[in-house]
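Fold this complex.
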Amino acid sequence: MIEWVRNAWLGWQQYIEKGRVAALFLAVLLFLWFGQKWKAQQSEQENAGRRLFDYSVAMAFLCICPLTAAVSMMYQTRFYDYQWIWSMVPVTIIIAWGGVIFLSDIWEKRGKNVTATATLTLGLAGILFLCGGLGQRDGLREAGREEARRNAGEVIAEVLLQVQGNDGIAREPVEICLWAPQEIMEAARSCSGEIRLPYGRNMWDPALNAYVYEAYDESLLAMYQWMSETDALVPEAELIEKLRPGEEEKTLWRTRGEACLASARENGVNCFLFPGDLDAEYVEWLQVQLQVAPVEVQGYYMFCPAK
Amino acid sequence: MKTEKQNSFKNIISLKNSTGTDRILLLFLMVIGLAEVIHLMAVMLGKGVSFCSKLFLAGFLLLVVIMGIAECLVRRTKASRKETSVGRKVLVQSNVPVFGAGLLILLQVVMVLTQENVYIDGDMTLETVNTFLATDAVYQINPLTGAPFEMGMPFRLKILCLPTLYSMLASVLPFGTEYLVYHLVPAVILVCSYLVYWNLSGILFGEKREAGGKRACFMILVILLFWIGSYAYGMDGFGALFCGYRGVSVRALILLPYTFSLVLRKKWITACLCILAEACIVWTFYGMGACLFVVVFLWLTERLQQAFDKRKTGKGAAA
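Structure:
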């Protein structure tokens, strides 16, 4: 229970750290309370406004107080984080309602003084814009993320074309089980429901583990680890002398690689993609292991060994 | 003279006191209900997406016909004619703010339809939809890997119908699954959300023509709040602009604000439909979700306030 209360308090702190809409909401509640603004409206609207205000005050208290917030989080199931309890608070409705009442007051009282009215209105708009932002904080606009997804989609399309055959001859569809760097695996099942993978996005996005009970064994974890290391191999020509991997490191990579490639074949993988900027030495080794020559596909080496 | 109880009962069940937006949103709730019934049939009886799509199309057309007939019947009554003409005049009298709001909504819809910024972390809706379509089966194959389930998935997630609804839409509409799930559906959700807020503005400011300007300003503020409030996952604006396809976004943008609207007008049966719709699209505590909480809590705060007012009036009279 103490941990839940602590989580609720940390959740509130993170909620107000990311932006100031919650602060604006509380400010509007104060404005409505001190002004008793719903009384200026007709009875039906006054009644509705009053009820909404009372509810919002009670809910705001419930969401800020750690004890009641913890109970609310338990009610909404522990699958959802703190910020979702605020969806039960009519934040947008209250701010917009309060904003209209405030603007109506200004325009009615100072309507003839255009400069003052315009200044106050723009000031309100400025406060509004200072309270938020445009999706920067949750990594949505991480540099190159959209481009990486688009490139991955093109690679997947090309892989499907190459494996299914692009000579126009109708043939039985080949079931593809693909093992590739993370950015390709991430997009594979989104692009086509026909591509199988040895492991899915829940390997690096643990939030997805809530959706399935499937777990990955040691061999699949090792495969993911080895592919990440392979993806991180920078071409030797770009490295200065002292940073080049020694023979020992290369041997270790090859030893683990042999085991991982064997695991991949056991898991049904029949299509391997590796980064296109791998040094020739590594590509030759892969060619020997997989017993097939690579095909270049949109900046990747594709190996499709025979069964 | 009708008693208060008779009048309130009529209010609960009557479409006559509903607005045009109410009827559109009722259709929205019924579509979710239809999708849920078909989805459960697919899960329990092992039916495929192709079978479900045909059933969904038939059911949807039937719903549209029924709502169309209901709309015609409602429009025939005197009260409805007066409501419609006032509604149109409200819009006509407030040209500039309405035009501004319309333009901003259009901009946001275009942005949602064309942007590449879609938030997919912690979500596998598209993989699930693609899997359903590729295998013509519902929850038989692990969407993340394409392999058959070994351990399965939680039943409380299996009963949620959104992936099946999107699969059925993808199989009947001429759009790619990614475009449908990440762009088209969020655009529809966004527009429906604005319908809900327009509905709310009528409750807060009245339906008369004089209120048109205030209602339009309310809408402009809502649109701006969606924009500036899109800085974090969980905010209404973030859900509206970057992940409108998710069940939590549909709940926050449509079901919850509409529940407020319905409870403030004491439309309890439609409010129950919101509670049920939420249970069909979001993981809830044995079906008890945020909408039920809102209904109960809003009712409770009203009762407490009435008790408080009575006491205050009683003390004042005594003094």
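The CA atoms of residues 142 and 152 of chain B lie 8 Å apart.
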